[in-house]
Every structure is written in structure tokens, then in C-alpha cells.
Amino acid sequence: VEHGNLAGAAAHLHLSTSSLSRVIRDLEQTLGVALLERTPKGIRPNAAGLVFMPHAQHLARCYASMVTLST
Question: Which pLDDT belongs to residue 4?
């Protein structure tokens, strides 16, 4: 979301666009709700995505912290 499109986000994460798209689609299916509004101009969080985003960001910070501690 911070990159405005899947290609930018995928590049940042060192993933292919199709891989990131699949991960997001699988997460949405697991949660039973769409998280992103997809438009020709890019992506942005919908209402559910805005609720979910702080939790995902927290998990990402925890993961980064664990990686830092392990090195």
C-alpha cells in the first residue's frame, strides 16, 4: 500500500508481482474479506484494510526485531 501498486511493493519485498498478489489473495481468503481496492491506477486499503493495516505493521515490526536480535 505504501508503494501505491503491487509492482513497487513486490520489488521492495524482493518478490514477483504475481507472488505478492497470490499472498494477498490467500490472506483475503483466509480472513474472508477483501483488504484492498484495486484500480487501474494502483491499490489502496479499503475499510477492512484500514482496520487490518496497523496489526500487520505491528507484526512486521516484531518480525524485524526478532531478525535483528538473532544476528
Answer: 83
